[in-house]
Amino acid sequence: MSIYNYLVKKPNNEILSMQTYQQQVMLIVNTASQCQFTYQYEDLQKLYTRYQERGFTILAFPCNQFGEQNPEDSQTTATQCKLQYGVSYPVFDKVMVNGEKAHPLFHYLKHEISCKDMPRDNMQQQMLYAHIEENYPDYLLAPNIRWNFTKFLVNRQGHVVHRFEPDDSILDIEQAIESLL
Question: Does position 119 have pLDDT exceeding 80, yes or no?
Answer without folding.
Answer: no
